[in-house]
Design brief:
The chain has 13 helices and 21 strands. It has 457 residues and is of the alpha/beta class. It has an 8-stranded parallel sheet with strand order 10-9-8-7-3-2-1-13. Strands 14-15-16-21-18-19 form a 6-stranded antiparallel sheet. The radius of gyration is 23 Å and the shape is globular.
Length: 457
């Protein structure tokens, strides 16, 4: 058989029958998926440091670090990003001339064994997932929307359809423009839903807890999103669904929050100041959609040691200054974005680790509600939220100006309060006095401050 599609026929013997065919497997109710991510998911993703080339030992090293240093603070997901099914991909781009794909006999991608040795003999990601689960963490993978081009070319059967083949459910319309691995799955055709059922069932058998689906929100592929939602709801496993990349159309906000746990607001965010300011621009449209179980997503956190194998530049510690890193973390946390760290965790320095383990900041991220922007004017931004459990108010202030130090602040009418509060800076616990009517502070260019207002008895 052509090596470009390594058919692992033993896989059928390694796993039980597909989940949908098993008796007494729970089918989740409509909207129940929101219970699986009541707070914004927090984890690590391999993209920013390894692009499409991450290997098993690197995944395990990041899981080991998370279990040892971050798990007590709520970090839990380990996510293998794009093209884990390609044997010969390269950093700094994609091999699109002669990629060696790994598929099973039903046209479903399997991990490349030369990169993930534990996947041998058709085991898929089962052993890696088990390794991560034993550490009290959760495992996730990235997939591309659609069905593999190779499966269509080979007319491989769709599992569970009694003879329908991949070439009967695809269209080359709306094929991803930047990666040509897959074709569109045409909703409504016999076998289309069954194909998505079959891949989600396989991932559930592996023990996958999180799926990031790429090339699905820009443009917005409503029909395929709905097929994926149905497939997860019938697979018997609670799998958090993340949609990518941005910019997700705001006009589809009502639809996306009824089908996914998180969705990207922008394209990839890297260690560039303009990416932070662009996020602040786009976020203005999404405050109303921040809700338990459904989270507008700022993308991965490009801090620490990134681009280990040349993805978007040479290997480096993040190019953002410390002030800019605080700006990024203040935005991600006060906005209640999912937190997916992109740097190689074992390469963290003490400062980077401090950004991921601040208990007060993460408590705000976990417990706050009512997130809203108070103003954005003259390069100054103010975002606030509240903690209903403690009556604390959180305020993030930003100076986006490139050269000028600016005074900014807020007053009681903006916050809708007449109480007296003690004010503390949250990253270092510094006392900033009391607040009753007005608060002002001078911020340097690209500087931000995150404040907690605590009611004074």
């Amino acid at each position: 058989m052509n090596r470009s599609i390594i058919s692992i026929f033993t896989a059928a013997l390694m796993f039980p029958p597909c989940v949908s065919a098993q008796k007494n497997v729970k089918h989740f109710a409509k909207g129940e998926f929101k219970e699986w991510a009541k707070t914004p998911p927090m984890g690590w993703n391999s993209w920013d440091c390894y692009g499409p080339t991450v290997e098993e030992h690197e995944v395990k090293a990041n899981a080991d670090y998370m279990a040892a240093h971050l798990k007590p603070y709520g970090w839990e997901y380990i996510v293998v990003d794009i093209r884990w099914f390609v044997e010969n991909d390269r950093a700094g781009g994609y091999n699109q001339t002669d990629p060696r794909y790994v598929l099973d006999e039903y046209g479903r991608y399997l991990p490349a064994v030369n990169r993930f040795p534990s996947a041998a003999d058709g085991k898929g990601f089962k052993e890696i997932a088990d390794y991560i689960h034993r550490k009290g963490l959760k495992f996730g993978i990235h997939i591309m929307r659609g069905i593999p081009v190779e499966a269509v070319r080979k007319k491989l059967p769709v599992k569970g359809t009694g003879g329908i083949t991949a070439d009967l459910i695809y269209s080359n319309e709306l094929q991803c423009k930047w990666l040509r691995d897959n074709y569109t799955v045409v909703a409504g055709r016999p076998g289309a839903q069954e194909y998505y059922n079959s891949i989600i069932e396989l991932y559930a058998q592996w023990g996958v807890d999180f799926i990031k689906v790429d090339d699905i929100t820009r443009p917005y592929h409503k029909a395929e999103i709905e097929m994926i939602r149905r497939a997860i709801d019938q697979c018997g496993r609670s799998i958090v669904l993340s949609l990518s990349p941005g910019e997700t159309p705001v006009n589809d906000g009502s639809h996306v929050c009824e089908h996914a746990n998180m969705w990207r607001m922008v394209d990839d965010v890297w260690d560039l100041w303009n990416d932070i300011t662009h996020l602040l621009d786009v976020a203005q449209n999404w405050y109303a959609y921040i809700s338990p179980g459904t989270w507008p997503d700022c993308d991965m956190i490009p801090l620490g040691r990134i681009s280990v194998r040349g993805e978007r530049g040479e290997e480096r510690m993040t190019r953002l200054t410390k002030n800019e890193q605080y700006c990024l973390m203040n935005l991600f946390t006060v906005f209640k974005s999912p937190l997916m760290f992109g740097g190689d965790l074992p390469g963290n320095d003490e400062f980077t680790l401090s950004l991921l383990t601040n208990e007060e900041v993460l408590k705000m991220h976990r417990e706050s509600s009512g997130v809203r922007q108070l103003f954005r004017e003259n390069g100054k931004v103010c975002i606030t939220s509240r903690n209903k459990n403690t009556d604390e108010i959180y305020v993030a202030l930003f100076n986006l100006h490139d050269t000028d130090t600016q005074e900014t602040g807020f007053h009681a009418q903006m916050l809708g309060t007449k109480e007296v509060y003690s004010v503390s800076e949250m990253w270092h616990g510094e006392n900033r006095g009391t607040f009753k009517s007005d608060f002002a502070i001078s911020l340097k260019p690209h500087e931000s401050i995150l404040l907690k207002l605590t009611p004074v008895p």
